[in-house]
Design goal:
The complex is a heterodimer. In chain A, about 70% of the residues lie in helices and about 0% in strands. Chain A is mainly α. Classes of the chains: A mainly alpha, B alpha/beta. At the A-B interface, loops of A face helix 4, helix 5 and helix 18 of B.
Chain lengths: ~300, ~450
């Protein structure tokens, strides 16, 4: 019988180098992403109540799934999260793109203004949440005072179910628009000059240049920006936890807040895992769609 | 004769020295644990925990046991502890908890009956029976298993501005309806600018405060939360009436507009700043209300038990307490027990009242000793002697029952749904949750301790 001996030279070749370099990343991804994901999916089929150590962890089949999917609270939180995500993405993208186009020219004070523009994104979500909670506070908040001065009757935007979610939305927009801005701004600076030159020579208007030259060239950058923000917006937790804890009532209860409540207030880990898996699946679908859209059609 | 006297003297000397040698002292009890460092998790926001930290150097000096405190915000305590306990992490030797969560902790705690029986560890004059009976019961689980000693004893009281009620010609309210009517009459614009300056009452509209407020009114009217089979039965006219009154206080502007965000601290601050005529709040907040450094209404406040509408009801005041509990996985159990015992001893509890202007002692002897110095102690003592204090139903899932219900009531408060719908939703969700947790097994009945069904 012949035993195939693979020499060391054949293992450590230039062709195999890329795989060796990827190996650490693979193990890290396995440890912090794949294994927890598989564990969560498995956990969603088990009944585990942390505060009942007298009850052993038991197989629940689809019990947790039926419980969660049969609860209107889940569907309301999911639709609320989707509406929130869509709203912030549209507004943040519009504002980020607009500001990037506006500042994409030499202007006096650019070295000071540009860093200040991205200051909000440097703050941690907890700090942002606290800051805006105090701004909205009906007793001493600046925003509440301004609103009362102009005749707005509500005591605090965060105390009313009709204004609480928009108030959180405004906070998120303030926090993350600079992120979209900086990505698009960097993208604009990396665009080649030749297509713009050619368009101008051909007599294209500014609007036509923007629509037929700038946007197509920026497409991949825009997709990355929107994809990253969509994932983050869908998972929003920190600001809501600090500002409203999901209230008043359920007005700002997103899917992440529901996951937190099931897992760390009620300690029903199986149900928390169901919600986490649903969240993952929704994000996965969104990512698939964006990647397909970003890489699918070739330029004419 | 001389020989007899000498013999007697020797006998007395020997007995006296023996007695001295065998007398219990904290120092002697702690000798085997000298040099140990205890890690204790404390809840933030409680004055008693601040006092504990101030007094601890004395404990360390006597025992040689060092104590490191980790103060955790109240809202995060349960979550943080459960994660540690579930993962078996030996982070703390003692956990400071709200008795509301005791059912969730008990599976991870170590009973202390054996330590209490150990004459080397327990002071002979500790006097466990000196604690208010309900305060002893709430920290017991299976028959006779004791898990800790209470640090505090309090319940909600109706605090009222005696001057404002007198000015309006109002006597003390006798019912929830009168309380509402009084709140309406006492809500005033004092400077004529069209804005309310004094609200009739504060209410605690935050999720963690809602159910407790309404429960006192409901229990005082003879209401029950569960039947013998642990089915929720509070979807009735009596609870609906209380819930509607509570919602109307907010909707009609008799409670501060920010009340959806108020818990006990915010409600107390609003009241002692002179912005409300009445307040239903935990009795220990009287410490802040009578503190001239904080309060604008010192000496103007009366404290009473919320009026009960059903005279036949005995137990209706929602008890509350905090305590330090011993996890099974604690590293230094005996040393932790000594700290727990020391802090809840008569001597230290007396000092908390006399030197630190106290909180709400759980001991009869201390309540009696300081009865004239603290305005709520007479009410505390009377309620304890008459057995008027009651626990919430002692099921592990009580926090979840509270949270699920409070959420619906908060929705009614802000006008998202009607109080009737809120009550229906609350009962439906509680029933569904308890069914999922496996409580409804055939015709199984549950004891009064679980269902809360005692008069």
């Amino acid at each position: 019988m012949k035993i195939k001996v693979i020499s060391k030279r054949k293992i450590f070749t230039d062709q195999n180098l890329k795989y060796w370099l990827l190996l650490p990343v693979f193990f890290v991804t396995l440890a912090v992403a794949i294994i927890p994901l598989v564990y969560s999916i498995g956990l969603s089929f088990f009944k585990w109540i942390v505060t009942r150590p007298d009850l052993p962890i038991s197989f629940a089949g689809l019990g947790n799934w039926v419980y969660i999917l049969g609860d209107m609270t889940f569907w309301e939180a999911l639709s609320r999260t989707l509406i929130f995500t869509a709203s912030v993405i549209v507004i943040e993208f519009s504002l980020g793109l607009g500001i990037a186009l506006l500042l994409n020219r030499p202007f006096y004070g650019a070295k000071i203004i540009l860093p200040l523009m991205i200051l909000p994104v440097m703050l941690s979500p907890i700090v942002v949440g606290l800051m805006w909670r105090y701004l909205y506070n009906g007793d001493f908040g600046l925003i509440a005072w301004i609103l009362k001065t102009i005749g707005f009757e509500k005591h605090s935007l965060l105390s009313d179910s009709s204004t609480a979610l928009p108030a959180v939305l405004i906070t998120d927009i303030w926090h993350w628009t600079p992120f979209i801005f900086i990505l698009i701004f960097a993208g604009l600076h990396s665009l080649p000059g030749a297509p713009f030159e050619a368009a101008r020579v051909d007599g294209a208007t500014k609007g036509q240049i923007f629509r037929w030259v700038t946007l197509p060239l920026l497409k991949r950058v825009i997709m990355v920006a929107i994809l990253l923000r969509t994932i983050d917006a869908f998972k929003i937790m920190d600001e809501i936890f600090i500002m409203t804890s999901g209230g008043p009532g359920r007005a700002t209860e997103t899917l992440s807040m529901l996951i937190y409540r099931q897992s760390f207030r009620y300690f029903t880990m199986g149900k928390g895992a169901v919600l986490a898996v649903v969240s993952f699946v929704v994000i996965l679908f969104m990512c698939q769609y964006f990647i397909k859209f970003a890489t699918g059609k070739k330029e004419a | 004769m001389k020989k007899v006297v000498l013999s007697l003297m020797i006998v007395f000397l020997v007995v006296g020295l023996s007695a001295y040698g065998f007398a219990w002292s904290l120092m002697e009890a702690a000798r085997p644990y000298k040099g140990v460092t205890l890690h204790v998790s404390l809840m933030g926001g409680y004055e008693i925990n601040t006092t504990l930290q101030k007094l601890t150097p004395e404990f360390t000096e006597q025992t040689g046991i060092k104590v490191v405190y980790d103060v955790v915000p109240y809202e995060e305590t349960l979550e943080k502890h459960m994660i540690l306990l579930a993962t078996g992490t030996q982070a703390y030797d003692l956990l400071n908890i709200d008795n509301l969560w005791f059912g969730q902790y008990v599976g991870f705690l170590r009973p202390i009956n054996d330590f209490m029986a150990d004459t080397k560890l327990t002071a002979p004059d500790f006097d466990y029976e000196d604690f208010v009976p309900m305060m002893r019961t709430i920290y017991q689980w299976a028959e006779g298993e004791i898990y800790t000693f209470p640090e505090m004893y309090f319940f909600p009281v109706l605090m009222h501005r005696k001057d404002l009620l007198a000015e309006a010609g109002l006597a003390l309210p006798n019912s929830t309806q009168e309380f509402y009517d009084w709140a309406a009459k006492l809500t005033r614009d004092t400077d004529g600018d069209g804005k309310t300056d004094i609200y009739g009452t504060t209410i605690q509209g935050r999720r963690t405060g809602v159910f407790d407020e309404i429960l006192n009114w409901y229990w005082g009217a003879g209401g029950q939360v569960f039947d013998e089979y642990l089915h929720p039965v509070f979807n009735n006219d009596q609870f609906l009436k209380k819930l509607t009154i509570w919602c109307d206080l907010y909707k009609n502007g008799y409670a501060p507009p920010g009340a959806t965000d108020y818990e006990l601290g915010e409600a107390a601050a609003w009241f002692y700043q002179g912005n409300a005529a009445m307040s239903c709040n935990w009795s220990f907040t009287a410490t802040w209300i009578e503190n001239p450094e904080l309060s604008k209404i010192v000496g103007k406040v009366g404290y009473m038990r919320f009026p009960k509408e059903d005279p036949s009801v005995q137990k209706y005041l929602r008890e509350a307490s905090t305590a330090m509990c011993l996890p099974k996985i604690a590293r230094h159990k005996e040393a932790a027990y000594l700290l727990m015992q020391w802090f809840t001893s008569k001597e230290i509890q007396r000092r908390i009242q006399s030197e630190f202007k106290g909180a709400s002692p759980p001991r009869f002897s201390v309540l009696e000793e300081f009865i004239d110095q603290y305005p709520t102690f007479r009410t505390h003592l009377d309620a304890a002697e008459k057995g008027q204090v009651r626990m919430v139903p002692k099921i592990v899932e009580w926090s979840e029952v509270d949270d699920l219900s409070a959420l619906e009531f908060q929705r009614a408060m802000i006008g998202d749904i009607s109080p009737k719908k809120a009550l229906e939703n609350a009962v439906e969700k509680v029933e569904r949750m308890l069914k999922d947790k496996g409580y409804y097994i055939g015709d199984k009945k549950y004891p009064p301790l679980f269902t809360g069904r005692y008069q």
